[in-house]
Q: What sequence folds into this?
């Protein structure tokens, strides 16, 4: 298996954007490729786009070809769009990685993009139902907030987790987002504002949830031989894992306060990388809801199951702690444009490991991790490292 | 890179089906996995689903997880849906191949599925517009038939191709389909019926076009070490190539009578396999319209550019010729359920190389090829061989 590096990264501003699906992808792609001279651009021989539902929100399929042509890339070895609901961006990175590792492509552009805000707000909300099983769950009204609320309630029952614990996570991520010019939210609410925000699904209040966001992100991956031509500071993909417990809530393990597939995905990634959870200094974790980040602390091995609250309350995931979780502001602060999220996480880790994260910089970060999930039973973990 | 084999295959009946998206995928998946004992089923560690627009036709995304759970597969290493419009099925096979070749997964189920016929026929037709650039081409009325008609007209001008040549291809494929119980069409029209069928886009008549079809197909891929546990007659993936000239018609090379990206994709596949076009005895070629098969003869190297008519008229692509093209009946005979087509092509090659194709059997076939395109400028070629 060949070594693979990230050699460039770029993002669009996240938010409720007056831009089309194509324009968002172009904004991120150009931010990623803008510095490259033409002779290096021509060496891009593949494209993988992570996106979930442009068929609904832009009446457009055939996505990889659309984005390649928009960006002036002509794929000679690999062209595809990859979808895995909320983890589509990380899945896209994994697929580019697999093709390069196997020797089937050399330099692959990965774009994650989603345009979720459409003129009719009700339609934007209903579209999210595409992610839930239509026959067995969506038909009975299940959406993401109540599903994750079940996990929060399980964690409360088992460990005494409070709304204030969830609020602490939300505030941490909003503070970080306020230092990130790409983030959907640029302001920090007061604890009182979070506590008094609208109840969405008990115990999850509005500010414990990620918003409906438009955005795009891009990274360029290259085989080791090619990487050095693109940058003198490549960030290596050290390992990756993906695992599934189940799709529908009904088939998940009964105790929702711990997610076995996350532990399995992280274990696969660390085994491949030859690293341990304690080696990670910066982690982009899938906080679609605050409870998800809390549960992920144990799944990712940053603490033992049941010790998530100690880890959080002692400042473990904040600056100064052993691993800074969501320095870019997470999904709660940056928003969650489905296919874009996993790629935006990779952008942040790329910048953090190169010391380019400005006011968000985690000092001396050498190993970074991204965690992306789609539902509580499906997880992707990718590990990155610098020389 | 590890060797990869196809070790099982199965299909749903293609047609206008009274079945949901999920039911079609289940039918193919069960046909593929039905013979496997439980201990072998549990070794499936990945799933890749090729499909284009379930978000429109089934209001469902999050596809890989849905199909895995429906089939009782728990992916521990790989789960994704891959989309590349009409070549989504072949793209899915390539992605499973890449993960196995790179050592990231061992046994991966590939399902191709599409439910195109919806209750409102106008919506079914409009949905196909998702495959065309919305801003620049669909907005001006471009759909697939006129695009391929431009290629047919170019071929007519340059080589004197007649409607009867296109009819000969359609009739060959309908004859083959009539021997294939999975095909959409089970009857053979008379030459007169084809000649008098409705003009769709000059010179393409109704019977020169593939229909709007529902269906699914599945293949199981395994690394060499695992393959022998699943079957004593594995069919090896010898090589694969994908290449893109352009997406929009406006950016394609001016002469539409030859497709450079097809030659490039086939060249990549043969270079990887160490084979030549003349080594291929059976080829599943993307005849979305009859002209596409004609042009592909040269792109795939079965004859030189400009000699397609000689090759066709001398029986080159029929039984008894050097390479039997579309023995299962092609897209014209079997229908074209987008994501299912590439996987159905692989099923046919699997059966042909194992001598299991019944009345369609190509005697002594050792090397088979599938060709799948999405538009005239984007092509995938996969080569398969038996020991």
A:
């Amino acid at each position: 298996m060949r070594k693979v590096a990230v050699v460039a990264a770029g993002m669009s501003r996240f938010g409720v954007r007056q831009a089309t699906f194509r324009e968002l992808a172009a904004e991120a792609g150009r931010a990623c490729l803008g510095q490259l001279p033409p002779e290096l651009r021509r060496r891009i021989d593949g494209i993988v786009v992570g996106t979930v539902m442009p068929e609904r929100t832009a009446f457009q399929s055939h996505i990889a070809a659309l984005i390649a042509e928009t960006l002036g890339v002509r794929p000679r070895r690999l062209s595809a769009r990859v979808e895995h609901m909320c983890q589509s961006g990380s899945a896209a990175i994994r697929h580019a990685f697999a093709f390069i590792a196997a020797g089937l492509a050399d330099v692959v552009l990965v774009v994650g993009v989603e345009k979720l805000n459409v003129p009719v707000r009700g339609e934007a909300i209903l579209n999210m139902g595409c992610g839930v099983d239509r026959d067995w769950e969506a038909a009975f009204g299940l959406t993401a907030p109540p599903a994750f609320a079940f996990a929060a309630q399980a964690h409360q029952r088992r460990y005494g987790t409070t709304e204030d614990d969830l609020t602490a996570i939300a505030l941490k991520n909003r503070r970080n987002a306020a230092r990130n010019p790409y983030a959907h939210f640029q302001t920090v609410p007061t604890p009182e504002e979070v506590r008094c925000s609208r109840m969405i699904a008990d115990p999850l209040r509005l500010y414990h949830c990620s918003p409906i966001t438009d955005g795009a992100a891009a990274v360029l991956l290259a085989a080791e031989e090619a990487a050095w031509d693109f940058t003198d500071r490549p960030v290596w993909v050290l390992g990756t894992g993906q695992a599934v417990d189940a799709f529908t809530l009904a088939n998940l393990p009964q105790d929702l306060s711990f997610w076995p597939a996350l532990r399995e995905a992280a274990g696969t990634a660390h085994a491949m990388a030859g690293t341990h959870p304690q080696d990670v200094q910066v982690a982009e974790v899938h906080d679609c809801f605050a409870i998800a980040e809390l549960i992920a602390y144990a799944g990712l091995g940053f603490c033992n199951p049941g010790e998530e609250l100690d880890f959080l309350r002692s400042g473990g995931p904040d600056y100064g702690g052993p691993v800074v979780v969501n320095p870019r502001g997470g999904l709660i602060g940056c928003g969650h444009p489905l296919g874009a999220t996993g790629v935006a996480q990779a952008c942040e880790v790329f910048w953090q490991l190169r010391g380019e994260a400005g006011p968000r910089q985690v000092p001396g970060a050498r190993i970074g991790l991204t965690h992306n999930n789609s539902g509580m039973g499906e997880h992707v973990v990718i590990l990155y490292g610098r020389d």
Notes: Chain B has a mean pLDDT of 97. The longest strand of chain B covers residues 235-244.
